[in-house]
Design a protein that fits this description.
With 585 residues, the chain is of the alpha+beta class. It has 15 helices and 27 strands. The strands form seven sheets. Strands 1, 4, 7, 8 and 9 form a five-stranded mixed sheet that branches.
Length: 585
Amino acid sequence: MAAPAASGSTMEDGAQEGDNGLCCSCGVVVEHPNNANMCVNCIRAQVDITEGIPKQLSIQWCKGCGRFLHTTTWVHCEPESRELLALLVRKVRGLNRVKLVDAGFVWTEPHSRRLKIKLTIQREVFTATILQQVFIVEFIMQNQFCELCHRSQTAHTWSASVQLRQHVGHKRTIYWLEQVILKANAHRNVLSIKEFADGLDFYFGTSSHAKKFVEFLQAACPIRFRTAKKLISKDDRSNTYNFKYSWSVEVVPVCREDLVCLPPRLCSSMGQCGPICLCSKVSGGMFHVVDTATLRHGEVHANVFWSTPFRALCTSRQLEEYTVLDVTPVAASAMVTAPKGMALCEVQVMRTSDFGRSNAEPAVVMCHLGNILKPGDTALGYSIQHINWNDDEADDTTKAQCPNDVVLVRKCYRRHRNRGRKARQQKQQKQQKQQQASEAAAAREGGRIWELQRLARDEIEYHHKQDEEQAEEDFEALMQSLEEDPELRSTVNMYRKAGVPVAAAAAAVRDARAASAAAAASAAPADAAMSDEDEDGEDDEEEEEEEEAPFDVKVDELLAPLEQLTVHGGGGADEEDEEDEEGDA
């Protein structure tokens, strides 16, 4: 039988060096004679050390999840990785009779569904004569659904479900959790996702995957959960039972920028913080509260909250717009350590809608935004006088303990006000539905060069147009929060929009910074007194956009566009991003 061509073949012998000899088969001069008195080519023509080793094999590959079948288990391997190479080498029979010296991949087209590895082996063919040979083994990738993917293609095949709920009037926290799940790839074992008005349902093939997902949610935000199981079928002969498991996960009904009233016992345990506090951040298994008048702050863990639950007095939908008239820095108490990014100040504010009224009076309040507020700015806050005190812990005595008539929450940027003003003008004009949707989408984009990924799910069918618009406003509020808070941006993945090159995105950010610096130098405090009724609405909006530039979302914080996040051969999204940058340069 003719031996396959071998590249890089060598021969080692144990004989001592002596005079040159002739090959007994072809007569070629052999510099280092061996015991067989034959040259390498003649030995390789008579002896094939790869005999018995298959040169073409097949491997099962699941096109649903991209895993490979190893014996009876499905394993995930990246293209041209060490794990995949080890898996392929193990499937080659007959290597136990030879010595494996080297193994590596040979590049193939991704769409060819072929995997090739180059093996280098050695074997003793004669006494003290070792022959080395290189050959290629080809693997054909055969499509075969794994058990989980096969079950996901049929209905009613889930074994465990996780019902994620938050009983509040908006979905901003659910949208944020969706981005956290995407960044951590915690949904890789999910069979399907279904959307509801107050949360999401996740369906899994095994209870262990659902339990691991609940543990991830417990580490991401403060929650509580309950478990239940339902008997589906049983076999008395083999003593086997088939259950369906359910996890009911409830997120605390307190969100970022909510105004809360802490119970007395909780206030005393946190160093007399509050009782009227602002929720500044939700992270891990807790949420952070701060007393804006004194900068006293604390952390409320999930178990502490559920032992003495309370609800928010005001949510972000009740925020009102205030104009800053004067800012005076105030030194915080030596007993209090100010939270990061906060500074105590005394602010004189007036509700923007009260300008021009004879009975309007400004309010002097203590605020935690002393490091970013300046006269002429606009801030969002809650009016203590207009709060509906329907909480059991909040009474007239608690209301009297609040030193501020207004609790400022955050600075309001003019870019965000422009979006809200355009939306209101569209509703007032009562345009057609299609035209209103397109203009609202264009207004919400606002020149953003980035976007967010969404989970593949069965979307909810809204019965009212108002509910759908409210969901869009909640998602827009999340994107605005990401623009304002760099710490919040670090918890999610933000992607550069398709069709926006890296160089163009960097130029847009540089122009925005230059416009912002020029606007800050030319802006005057008198410009803060603005009326809600603008005669030239579009002209004023353009002027405001020139006064204050978009937020500084750095280009290096953005990932490659979603359309480019595909694996091609051994390269991935990083290689495509580098190629895109080289082309832009």
